[in-house]
Amino acid sequence: MYLIKKLFVVILLFFLLYKPAYAIDVSAHSAILIDAESERVIFSKNEHEQMKIASITKIMTAHLAIRHGKLNDKVKISNEASSTEGSSLYLKAGQTVLLEDLLYGLLLRSGNDAAVAIAEHISGSVEKFSELMNEEAKRLKMKNSYFTNPHGLDTDDQHLSTAYDMAILTRHAIQDKTFKKIFSASSYTPSFKDAYPWTNKHRLVTGLYPHANGGKTGFTKKAGRTLVTTAEKEDMTLVAVTIYGPDDWNDHMSLFEYGFEHYDMAQLISRGPLPVVPGMPENIQYISDHEIKVPLTEEERSQIVYKIVPGTKTELKVYTGENLVSSIPLTEKKFDPPAFYENLLSKLKELFKW
């Protein structure tokens, strides 16, 4: 009886103390953590579920404004822009403001009036700008996103996106130096008369998390809290997105710590000819036009397997165990195999070292 009790206690302690490696959860209904360089998904939860996204919509607005406008463009504020509800820069109808000022106000203070002014300046109207947003979403393969406005207010039930799509958008947007500079700013003082300094609403960017280097907040009654953050440590940049996350600051810090603690960037392939390995055709030289880096755990590093898949477009697939982590196209360079006697002579030279 004593031994049975002792065994029961040991089993109970095991279940109380045991935690699966890399276990993590978040308060958000939908969430994702990806590597910005490879797009590898490190953590996900309902990442493809279409939801209202509130003001993280403005990442798309800023991304398009930078692609189609110039920072020194002079933007005239319309009645419609100045009267937009919600978060505001308190712009006045008839006022002229630099596009650069509007972009800082859009991302740091979440100005809905700035969003409408930018849309009207770039496309002529909110409706036309929404069409541009959807064209860009299609180009970036944001398959579950549809935009009807530049600010994210709950004007209808069609304006939807997903955590996955917003991570892909952010990953592309931060590749632009101008976007990244504005996205990462802690504060900014606009150039127009009687302006006051704007502080970024994103608490992780203003010092709560030391590795955070960019982000956008969002909130509406229907969408709840939405948040996008980028963080960089050593050679790894991660993008975190949460939708309907009541404890999103802690969600993002937990996601980043999880990623930085368990993953390191691994160079899977260098640019140039692939080394010759047994089994490869003697008359074909495979060449990679890309350098591929992917975040891997220590266990995954010990399980890397390369497979060349011939076809119309030959590909190199990289697995860790049974999981595909990267797939890239290869260029083929074909040459005639050495003649029999030439090959024999080469092998004899190698054998007798002359």
Keywords:
354 residues; alpha+beta; elongated
Give a structural overview.
There is one protein chain. This protein has helices at 2-17, 58-68, 79-82, 99-108, 112-123, 126-139, 163-173, 177-183, 204-208, 248-262, 298-301, 340-352; strands at 30-35, 41-45, 74-76, 96-98, 187-188, 198-199, 212-220, 224-233, 236-243, 264-269, 272-273, 284-288, 292-296, 304-309, 315-320, 323-334. It is α+β, with helices and mostly antiparallel strands and 354 residues long. Strands 2-1-9-8-7 form a 5-stranded antiparallel beta sheet, sandwiched between helices. Strand 15 (315-320) and strand 16 (323-334) form a beta hairpin.
The end-to-end distance, rounded to whole angstroms, is: 80 Å
**Backbone structural class:** alpha+beta
Unreliable runs, pLDDT <50, ≥5 residues?
6-22
- Order of SSEs, N→C? HEEHEHEHHHHHEEHEEEHEEEEHEEEH
The total of beta strands comes to: 16
Described by strand count, sense and barrel closure, the largest sheet is: 5 strands, antiparallel
Shape: elongated
Q: What is the averaged pLDDT score?
A: 89
What assembly state would you assign to the polypeptide chains in this entry? single chain
Spatial strand sequence of the major β-sheet: 2-1-9-8-7
